[in-house]
Structures are given as structure tokens and as C-alpha cells.
Specification:
single chain, 5-stranded parallel beta sheet, 5 helices, 39% helix, disordered C terminus
Length: 130
């Protein structure tokens, strides 16, 4: 499936996301903060970034701005997560280039549906037959 980078500063939530995404067949990379996430992205091959907004150091919005301002990373979809889905925060995230904002907590079904909107099948991936 896809190579997803999850950036989340709460270890328990990071672990849950990792487990859920691996169960869906994704390859999961993890970081506890934005700068480590950038190092993983710079190694290449990430299909999507799922990042918390509120983190110490480089927050999710700053990370998104950095990705969108860097040509080789600008096409990577960034989904931001927040426990404070206020209109001003969502607007700022979208202005920073986020593909979407997910309000925490969310269900596994909501996560799957949202990821499906932004992950394109790659050559060699098995496609469902209709």
C-alpha cells in the first residue's frame, strides 16, 4: 500500500495510529516531532504525512509550510490532526497547504476514508476488482 509518515508527540496515540495503519497494509514511519519528520521525508519515498498540529518545536503547520515551500516535497499530501478543530486553526492549516484537517478523536473508519481521498494507487499495488 502506501508509505505513511505519522508525526505525533503523544506516544500512546502514535502507537495506536501505527498499529491501525499497519493493519491496513501501509508501511509506517514515525516521528515524535516535526524536525525528525523532516529528516525522514528527506530520505524520500513518503506518500503521505499525517501530523499533529500541536507539538513542541516545529508544529504541524510549520512542517506543512516547509514541505509546500520545498519543490521536491510539495506534492506530498499532508493531513493535519488537532484536538482543537476551531475554524481559525483549520483555516490556518489549509493556508499552510494542508490537504485536510482531521479532528481528534476520530474513528478507524474516518481515518480510512480520509486516507483514501489522498492516496493514489501506485504501479504494482493490488487493485480491488469491481
Amino acid at each position: 500500500m502506501a508509505r505513511i509518515l505519522v508525526i505525533e508527540d503523544h506516544p500512546a496515540f502514535l502507537s495506536v495510529l501505527e498499529h491501525c495503519l499497519r493493519m491496513q497494509g501501509h508501511v509506517v514511519f514515525m516521528a515524535a516531532e516535526g524536525r525528525t519528520g523532516l529528516a525522514i521525508i528527506s530520505a524520500g519515498g513518503i506518500d503521505l504525512v499525517l501530523s499533529d498540529i500541536d507539538m513542541p518545536g516545529m508544529n504541524g503547520i510549520s512542517l506543512c509550510e516547509k514541505l509546500k515551500d520545498t519543490p521536491r516535497w510539495s506534492r506530498i499530501p499532508v493531513l493535519l490532526m488537532t484536538g482543537r478543530p476551531l475554524p481559525a486553526i483549520t483555516q490556518r492549516a489549509v493556508q499552510a497547504g494542508a490537504a485536510g484537517v482531521m479532528a481528534k478523536p476520530f474513528t478507524l473508519g474516518q481515518l480510512q476514508a480520509t486516507l483514501g481521498l489522498y492516496l493514489m494507487p501506485r504501479a504494482g499495488d493490488k487493485m480491488a476488482r469491481v
